[in-house]
Amino acid sequence: MTQEELTQLLGGWEGYRLEAAERREASEPGGRPEIWLTLEPDEWRCKYCSGCGEVVQAVHDTEERCVRDLPILDADTWLRVRRCRLACPRCGPKLERLDWLERYARVTKRLAENVARLCRELPIKHVAKYFHLHWSTVKAIDQAYLEAKLGPIDLTGVEQIAMDEFAIQKGHRYATVVVDAQSKRVLWVGRGRKREDVRPFFELLGAEGRERLKAVVMDMNAAYEEEVRARCPCAEIVYDLFHVVAKYGREVIDRVRVDEANRLRHDRPARAVIKGARWLLLRNRNNIPEHADRVRLKELLAANRKLYTTYVLKDDLKHLWEYRYEGAARTFWKSWYGRAIRSRIEPLKKFARKLKGYLWGILAHCRWPLHTSLLEGINNKIKVIKRMAYGYRDDAYFFLRIRAAFPGIP
Ligand SMILES: [Zn+2]
Known about the structure:
The chain has helices spanning about 5-10, 110-120, 125-130, 135-150, 200-210, 225-230, 240-265, 270-275, 280, 290-305, 305-315, 325-340, 345-355, 360-365, 375-390, 395-405, and strands at about 15-25, 35-40, 60-70, 75-90, 90-95, 160-170, 175-180, 185-190, 215-220, 235-240. Strands 1, 2, 3, 4 and 5 form a 5-stranded mixed sheet that branches. It folds into 4 domains: about 5-105, no CATH class; about 110-150, no CATH class; about 160-240 and about 370-405, Ribonuclease H-like superfamily/Ribonuclease H (Nucleotidyltransferase, domain 5, 2-Layer Sandwich); about 240-365, no CATH class. About 30% of the residues are buried. By secondary structure, the chain is α/β, with parallel strands linked by helices. It is elongated and about 90 Å long. The structure holds zinc ion.
């Protein structure tokens, strides 16, 4: 095997040949051994300018760089690479373009790709530990990779969107995510949740795009509504199931639970059961994994009439989003509303009266039957991304991760 073939087999560092290899054992206990490879440029290679991409043979100067590559067996691998600056007649002195090493990168392309791939599965901290790279290096690699992969935002043909807020830091900082409701692709993420915070998105959409917009799904209390009305004359506002049900949970179920616990303050065991049931009552019945918990919920509901009524009415309320004919949806609403008003449960009555004022936005769902779980799914996934990205305060990177997590369905 020739030296050249050996280089190809081992590393494929195109245009370079392996000149020397050295193994250094770990200097401290628990450390990792290192392999140092010296690569020399192949004199006969065709050299391309990184500026204009043309062939340039004249070398201006060279400089040695230390670059990380994928680990070899048990060892971290370092490359000593002589980088050439070419004397390009068009661009002046310019670095030689290499397919396996970006211009100012301190890691090879394939290491960067592996880092980015692992970042999809693990928190940055773990990826950094695995590859023995600095935390900020891993983040920078992933950020550059995502920027290149996602490219600029494409808003052509968007007709139906969903908008939602999420907390970057609960109680302090919020952001808004905009999703194409049909393809489920994240279109835009920006800081803030106020009307003027989402204006940049509508600017980006352009006059034609704003006129093309037919439906916008959102939470009932969102500040976005006014901005949509002012800017997108043809767009209908549609209220999202997930938010209405979450609101019901907070304002009705939780309120009734606290009231019932207070009412039972002389019956300590019964009071404890109700007080401890917050999670059980607010969770979707199908998402309670433990059999014992499902039994507990059943017994609790059987023993408490008010909780039972509010719980059943929550499940029924969800049906309102299943209708395709507004007339049928209206009939269903009337019956639900009647039951709520007759329930003699104050928080429930109050909620029903308030919801009545927003009914048009719920019925709009009949005309725009968008995924009812879209915003819920995105909301949950953002929480996971936030946990994975724990420890950084870089919104740009966080938003990029959100975009990458929802590339859309073709
Ligand atoms: Zn050039």
